C-alpha cells in the first residue's frame, strides 16, 4: 500500500513520475511563459500605437485650427492608413472630410464620410457623420439621395440630433423648391429646441416663397 511506502520508495516513485512527465511539464511551463510574454508585448505595442496615433491626432487638430488644409489632409490620411483600428482613425476621417471640403474636393469628402459611416459602430458618431455627409450631398446638388439619408432620422428617432436633422431636411427641401415642406421642417427644428440665429433667418426667408 502506498501509505506504508518507505522514504526511499517514495523518492523512487517520484523520480519515475518525473521521468515520465517532465517533458509535458516543461512544455506547459514554457507555453505559459510564452503566453505571458506575448500578452505583455501585445499590451506594450498597443500602448505605443495609441501614443503614436494620439501624437498625430494632436498635430491634425493644430493644423486644422491654423487652417493648414493640405497638412491636415496628409495627417488625416496618415492616421487612417497607419492606425485604422484606433478611435483616432474615426475622428480623423471627420477632420479629413472637413479639410477636403475646405479644399473644394466635395467628392473626396463624400467618399471619406461614406467610409466612416460604414465602419463606425458608435451611434452618436454616425449621426454626426450622416449629417455632414448629407450636407456634402447638398453641396453636390444630390438632393434626393441626401433626403433619403436624413428622413428616416426625423424626430423622435434621432434623439438630441433631431433638431439638426429637421433643419438639414428643411435646407434640402428648400433646395428642391418645396418651400412649404421646408417651412414645416424648420418650424419642427425650432420646436425641438434649435434656437440658432441662422435658423431664424431661414424661417424669415421662406414665407414669401412658401405663399400662394
TrEMBL record:
Pfam families: TPR_21
Location in or out of the cell: Cell membrane
Bilayer disposition of the protein: Single-pass type II membrane protein
Assigned keywords, A-Z: Cell membrane, Chaperone, Membrane, Transmembrane, Transmembrane helix
Stretches assigned to the Ancillary SecYEG translocon subunit/Cell division coordinator CpoB TPR domain: 16-207
Membrane spanning residue stretches: 24-42
Record family assignment: Belongs to the YfgM family.
PANTHER family: ANCILLARY SECYEG TRANSLOCON SUBUNIT, UPF0070 PROTEIN YFGM
Name of the protein described by the UniProt record: Ancillary SecYEG translocon subunit
The organism's taxonomic lineage, starting at the top: Bacteria, Pseudomonadati, Pseudomonadota, Gammaproteobacteria, Methylococcales
